Amino acid sequence: MSGPAPRGLDEFGEIARLFRPLARGAPGAFELMDDAAVIPSRPGFDLVITKDAIIEGVHFLAGERAELVGRRLARVNLSDLAAKGAEPQAAFLAVAWPPVWTEADRASFAAGLGADLKDAGVSLLGGDTVATPGPFTASLTLMGWVPGGRMVRRASARAGDRLMVSGHIGDAWLGLAAARGQVADPDGYLEGRYRLPTPRLDLARAVLDHASSAADVSDGLIADAGHIAEASGVELVLDLERVPLSAAARAWLALQPDATAARLALASGGDDYEIVATAAVALPGFTVIGEVVEGHGVTVRDNGQPVEPGAGGWRHG
Q1: Strand runs (DSSP E) across 108-250, as ranges?
Q2: Mean pLDDT per segment of 10 residues, for the chain of length 317 residues?
Q3: How much is the pLDDT for 11?
Q4: In terms of CB atoms within 10 Å, which end of the chain has fewer, N or C?
């Protein structure tokens, strides 16, 4: 790890203090004292690589606790590996510190990142630290193993498959609204779901063994289902009334004057970090919400009636 450090900061000393422990003694990390790392081959396996970046005020709330920022960075990347059926292994970090981030903030970020990487069995192998006039920006490159040729892609959905999703959908969208004071959240559950998503590593094996296609739900359920439909050259039929909701989301839904519009908003909000998948059979931990048919794109229905989905979620610029 190398690069210009924030003014007055001993970059290499900070790397040793904050990030060397995250290497967890991995031989190819060389104690983060080199300009590169080595990843040994694993016979019979493919190395799956993903990369997500987060920017303060865009991907998380400005002024968020540094520990949660570090944990969020780990989790949004781990979510991608879970949807591919991959076993997490190693990571590379790039982080740009703005002047307002104190030494304590940087240590808290490293601690949060390190805790979640350790829980997932991931070693930090290297990266870069630099200064920026702002805002805080960080990117994690995460790698994991899958048996050779078996990574679960977006492009393999087949007509006749079931469309399904894990967990609950819409909590993170409501949680962001709650953090902004727009939605009641007396016990903080919704806000917690936005601030600290849970990557579905517990479902990675089921995805690997049974899913024909999968993606993590980051842009929005409808949008990410659309990515599968486009890549696979099929049509996904999604029934809004079957989308699984938490008790908090159901309570919010009951207060809305237009239930269809509200269900559409929940299925478009994004940041859930659940897994949308297709398979010939229902998977444990998933709820069936539709089907795969011949055609293209996503058809959204509510109680059998067609619904115009709009963008269906986040559109990348």
Answers
A1: 123-131, 137-147, 162-166, 211-216, 235-239
A2: 49 88 93 91 96 94 96 98 98 97 96 98 95 96 98 98 98 97 96 97 98 97 97 98 98 97 97 98 96 97 95 56
A3: 75
A4: C
In CATH, what is the architecture of 11-147? 2-Layer Sandwich (3.30)
DSSP secondary-structure letter at 305?
Answer: E
pTM of the prediction? 0.92
Q: Return the pLDDT at 13.
A: 85
d(CA 167, CA 228): 19
Nearest to 202 by CA among 74, 29, 65, 83: 83
In the structure encoding, which two tokens stand for residue 24, read together?
A: 């967890």
pLDDT of residue 149: 97
Q: What are phi and psi of 239, to 5 degrees?
A: -100, 110
- Contacting residues for 65 by C-beta, under 8 A, at least 6 apart: 108
78: CB partners within 8 A, 6+ apart: 88, 116, 120, 122, 142, 199, 201
Q: Assign 79 to helix, strand or coil.
A: helix
Domain 162-307: which CATH number of 3.20.20.370, 3.90.650.10, 3.40.980.10, 3.40.50.880: 3.90.650.10
